Amino acid sequence: MLDNVRVVMVGTTHPGNIGAAARAMKTMGLSDLRLVTPKIYPSAEATSRASGAGDILAAARVCDSLDEALEGATLVVGTSARHRRIPWPCLTPRELGQQLEQEPADARIAVLFGREDRGLTNEELHRCNLHVSVPTNPEYGVLNVASAVQLIAYELRLVLADDDTVPKAARANRATMTSPRMYWDEPVASNDAVQHFLDHLERIMVRSEFLDPEKPAQVMTRMRRLFLRARPDRMEINILRGTLVAIDKALDDRS
Q: Most buried of the four, 33, 143, 202, 240, by CB within 10 Å?
């Protein structure tokens, strides 16, 4: 299942961090690296810092947008060190590993890492089903992005790796877990499908005058949190989109 995990680095400034992250990934058995608008890449410094993980860099996808990097993902996890005005489901790396034990075998998981100086934007975090935060020293919570990749990749390896290096205790815990999604009748909707639905929902809310675009408050933030937390399946999203189409048509008929 590690093959289904992609590491997405957004707006990386220092190419050395890309190389160090690639090295951290290879150490833990991850191979899918996606870079969203890196400031400097390719780079000899990235290759040097990769130190034997050049194959990860060679296969890395450079993306022009977050949408491109997340295409097809069914679970998106954003790393964050800050408390938000609107709280989001937030886990420690250990809790994230436990959460992923409950994902179906064909889940496509994207873990987002933000810029060195300011992390992910609120808009980027609003694309995520879950947030993960490392419980650092409150007096010095600075964590290098490559170090964060290493730490989270380690926790993912404990629960997702299929080789003999996984500790027996972790393997035993995983064997006793039962996943409600494992026997679900429809696959989980992809992140981009949910985003298209949310964009459609916002248009309908504005058109029906429920939502004032000049004074939106936190309405759409809360709606995004609701549907990303709910993890709707593909059929449920189709039903919701169909409902919005019907509402749109009814509004046309009234005008």
A: 33
